[in-house]
TrEMBL record:
Keyword Ubl conjugation: no
Record's keyword annotation contains Protein transport: no
Protein name: 3-oxoacyl-ACP synthase
Matches recorded under SUPFAM superfamilies: Thiolase-like
Coiled-coil regions listed in the entry: none
Length: 339
């Protein structure tokens, strides 16, 4: 018996506050031996979560587009809720339960994903498709909150580092349904466990992240680590995209729209060149939003839908890698139009 078609039916997003220009971080910049590294070339703008704005607040605001287009009932009656939050509001548990309550949901499944990182939207699509196609419901919501820029990276002693000028905040909610409206054609998810743990937090003096002490945490980047991450990211994202293309019988050059995470301009250029796609077939909002981590794919997809860059019948390829290269995923969808 064939499994039912599962679609990424819609996506809606939210960017907090007014755009913050590159000069904001320039005023705090100090001597940093990574200042000129291509990995940390600042975007023109990005957005920051407000000091009193929680991840749940962000997701609730992102969901409003879905509610306006599909009604409260579609959101409230969803059978599955899959979430990913870059900086959880509480250390010991994720945001799934709180998001379900805020949106008026009583889902059978609530799953918080951590390992997906910047590729969390693809991983969540994979999980949602598996659950819905096996009969565990007819509707799933995917909720992504990237809230590290205005919290973690804007700490007074962290924002002076080159790494802090790149991230931006945003949130997204995707609607996945048992239907053939915008069918998911294929998904490839790969875990590279040998690289797990290579992304680290750095404190001076050293301590565990939860221990009290002087100084604030930052990502433990070194020239050597950056070189490895660049090599892995340049390889992994095209690899998973090629794997999906091979599975669904699509020449990569026939991808109508490529949507990736967006750590920096170098990755964006290298990925589209690897897939032999022109710039106009690769959506990015890097200079408007910075590195949106896990929210990058859905935010860019929402922008592409809203301004007509992707049209009914187009094949959209979503691809990303996470952390220091411990996970990568790609998913292809034939877009059927926004209801």
């Amino acid at each position: 018996m064939s499994q039912p078609a599962v679609s990424l039916t819609d996506v809606s997003t939210y960017l907090p506050g007014e755009p913050i220009g590159a000069d904001y971080y320039a005023q705090f910049a100090e001597s940093d031996n990574l200042r000129d590294n291509l990995m940390f070339r600042a975007p023109r703008f990005r957005h920051h979560v407000a000091p009193d704005e929680s991840a749940i607040d962000m997701v609730e605001r992102a969901a409003q587009g879905l509610i306006e287009r599909h009604g409260h009932d579609v959101v409230e009656s969803a059978d599955v809720l899959i979430t990913h939050t870059q900086v959880p509001d509480m250390a010991f548990y994720g945001e799934g339960g709180g998001i379900a309550h805020r949106l008026g949901m009583r889902p059978s499944w609530v799953l918080d994903l951590n390992n997906g990182g910047c590729a969390a939207f693809v991983l969540a699509l994979n999980v949602a498709r598996k659950l819905l196609s096996s009969g565990d419901g007819r509707t799933a919501l995917i909720a992504i909150a990237q809230n590290a820029a205005g919290q973690f990276f804007d700490q007074p002693r962290t924002r002076c580092k080159a790494q802090s000028a790149v991230p931006g905040d945003g949130a997204a909610v995707g609607l996945v349904t048992v239907s053939d409206q915008s069918p998911i054609l294929g998904i490839e998810c790969r875990t590279y466990g040998e690289y797990a743990g290579e992304m680290t937090l750095s404190f001076d003096p050293p301590r565990k992240w939860w221990q009290a002490g002087p100084g604030e945490g930052s990502i433990g980047f070194t020239e050597s680590k950056i070189t490895k991450v660049l090599a892995r990211g340049n390889r992994q994202v095209p690899e998973v995209a090629f794997a999906v293309c091979d599975r669904i019988g699509l020449d990569p050059k026939d991808i109508d729209l490529l949507v990736t995470n967006q750590p920096n301009r170098v990755f964006l250029r290298n990925w589209r060149e690897a897939l032999e796609l022109p710039k106009e077939h690769h959506r990015d909002t890097f200079d408007e939003c910075g590195n949106l981590f896990g929210a990058g794919i859905p935010v860019n997809l929402d922008r592409a839908i809203s301004d007509g860059q992707v049209k009914s019948g187009d094949v959209v390829m979503m691809a990303a890698f996470a952390h220091a290269g411990d996970f990568a995923g790609a998913a292809a969808v034939r877009w059927g139009g926004r209801p």
